[in-house]
């Protein structure tokens, strides 16, 4: 019997499978489709996902298969959000144009290298769980039924998730009232750089798809934005959209894919029901503004994976295990609520159809050019600015933040190589604290990697000013901070209590 069943072999399910298998768990992935669709709803990988992959040493595979981009739009603004070492603080401070189909193929290959078991062509049709196991019934195209049983199950099967329905997750939200279009095409006279414009005709974006010589064109056209998603545009429609917005159709031809999508917005009330979890598009749906769909799914998987590993390996049991697993829903719902607000705001900018809305859009676009706001928004859009639950009584502002703007040994490699789905990182910058902290964490030595002053820890971000030590979770988020003003007599108790709650019962 596998430890975990994952339903859905999209980016979220595949990344979760790879993380769990890397910790030695037995993982089965069930996917309803037999063949992978070469069409890609998502055409980009945000810098936040790339950094997650870098912490596992696999980012270069994706970089080699994609096209780096160093700026992104916000609501189709001509004022771009700029990614840099200063703003993101990562080894790869850029996003990638890479089709979702390519991302999925690379992840499948990585999973197969690790020994993840796949069952393609199996549609989930029934689900039963008890206090110890969960079983999912599947059916193939020829009517053959099978039952798969595991300790835990995660539904990563998209916005029409069978698992979400079978496990009775509530999925409230609003139906779409605005639609956008997309086209993957070749172009005889493409622009020299990515384009994003917004004018009286609507919004228009164009950039390399990252697949052969295709370009991704997408936007919201005022004249057609009330059409349903079923009203798929023709190539001539897309040429008209481009000509209206920019005076040229760039000689587009040979469409690989034409589609229409809406701003339907939904968020599950909870991401866990007993031994069943949902993640990615199965848990949340929103307008694809800024390419945040894959980003949120990858971060769902990163958040859940290390917690499932700790529980599946029985390092945490009983109430401690339940409380840790419940934080997945609490943390990710808060992050998704903020992301949904951002996508709703961008939708309003895309569809500015009267003088009042256009005036508001102009003001927002002007503000985006301000360096501080530009940095704030680019971190949020790329997956580095998620809000994090605040404990009663408050907490250090660094808690919950992803580790950025920090090098060890003259680069990022030493820090990244120390990270794993079952490993915490203790960063110690104060030489006088090293003996005390080494003694504090000794019962958890098998699950904590220490990097100290002699390893050459160098920060280049304001968030690290005054930080003497920090504990980092396996998903690269800070969970404990000791500053130069922290009472030294409380250190031993605070870090040991935290490790008993998150890492292993002693």
Automatic annotation (TrEMBL):
The keyword Flavoprotein applies. SUPFAM superfamilies: FAD/NAD(P)-binding domain (SSF51905). Residues 3-341 form the FAD-binding domain. The keyword NAD does not apply. Keywords: FAD, Flavoprotein, Oxidoreductase. InterPro entries: FAD-bd, FAD/NAD-bd_sf, RIFMO-like. GO terms for molecular function: FAD binding; oxidoreductase activity, acting on paired donors, with incorporation or reduction of molecular oxygen, NAD(P)H as one donor, and incorporation of one atom of oxygen. Its cofactor is FAD. Coiled coil: none annotated. It comes from the Eukaryota. This is FAD binding domain-containing protein. The lineage of its organism: Eukaryota, Fungi, Dikarya, Ascomycota, Pezizomycotina.
């Amino acid at each position: 019997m596998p430890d975990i069943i994952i339903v859905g072999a999209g980016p979220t399910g595949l990344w979760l499978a790879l993380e769990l298998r890397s910790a030695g768990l037995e993982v089965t992935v069930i996917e309803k489709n037999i063949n992978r669709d070469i069409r890609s709803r998502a055409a980009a990988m945000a810098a936040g996902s790339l950094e997650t992959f870098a912490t596992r040493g696999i980012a270069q595979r994706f970089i080699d298969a994609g096209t780096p981009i160093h700026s992104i739009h916000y609501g189709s603004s001509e004022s771009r959000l700029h990614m840099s070492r200063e703003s993101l603080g990562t080894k790869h401070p850029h996003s990638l144009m890479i089709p979702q189909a390519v991302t999925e193929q690379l992840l499948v290959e990585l999973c197969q290298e690790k020994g993840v078991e796949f069952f393609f062509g199996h549609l989930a049709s029934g689900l039963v769980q008890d206090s110890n196991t969960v079983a999912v019934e599947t059916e193939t195209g020829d009517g053959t039924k099978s039952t798969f049983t595991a300790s835990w199950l995660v539904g990563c099967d998209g916005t029409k998730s069978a698992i979400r329905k079978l496990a009775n997750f509530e999925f409230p939200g609003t139906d779409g009232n605005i639609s956008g279009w997309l086209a993957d095409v070749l172009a005889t006279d493409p622009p020299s750089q990515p384009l994003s414009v917004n004018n009286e005709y609507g919004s228009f974006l164009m950039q390399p798809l990252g697949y052969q010589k295709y370009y991704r064109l997408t936007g919201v056209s005022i004249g057609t934005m009330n059409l349903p998603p079923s009203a798929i545009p023709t190539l001539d429609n897309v040429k008209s959209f481009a000509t209206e917005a920019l005076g040229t159709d760039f000689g587009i031809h040979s469409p690989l894919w034409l589609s229409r999508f809406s701003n339907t917005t939904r968020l599950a009330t909870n991401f866990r029901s007993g031994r069943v979890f949902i993640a990615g598009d199965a848990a949340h749906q929103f307008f694809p503004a800024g390419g945040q769909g894959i980003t949120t799914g990858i971060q769902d998987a990163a958040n859940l994976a290390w917690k499932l590993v700790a529980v599946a390996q029985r390092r945490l049991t009983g109430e401690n295990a339940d409380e840790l697993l419940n934080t997945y829903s609490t943390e990710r719902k808060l992050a998704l609520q903020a992301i949904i607000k951002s996508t709703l705001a961008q939708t309003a900018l895309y569809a500015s159809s009267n003088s009042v809305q256009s005036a508001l859009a102009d003001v927002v676009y002007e503000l985006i050019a301000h360096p501080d706001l530009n940095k704030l928004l680019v971190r949020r859009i790329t997956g580095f600015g998620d809000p994090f639950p605040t404990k009663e009584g408050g907490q250090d502002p660094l808690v919950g933040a992803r580790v950025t703007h920090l090098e060890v040994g003259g680069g990022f490699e030493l820090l990244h190589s120390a990270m794993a789905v079952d490993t915490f990182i203790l960063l110690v910058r104060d030489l006088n604290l090293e003996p005390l902290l080494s003694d504090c964490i000794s019962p958890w030595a098998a699950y904590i990697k220490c990097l100290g002053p002699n390893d050459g820890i160098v920060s280049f971000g304001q968030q690290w000013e005054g930080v003497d030590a920090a504990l980092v979770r396996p998903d690269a988020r800070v969970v404990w901070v000791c500053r130069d003003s922290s009472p030294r007599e409380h250190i031993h108790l605070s870090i040991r209590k935290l490790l008993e709650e998150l890492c292993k019962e002693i």
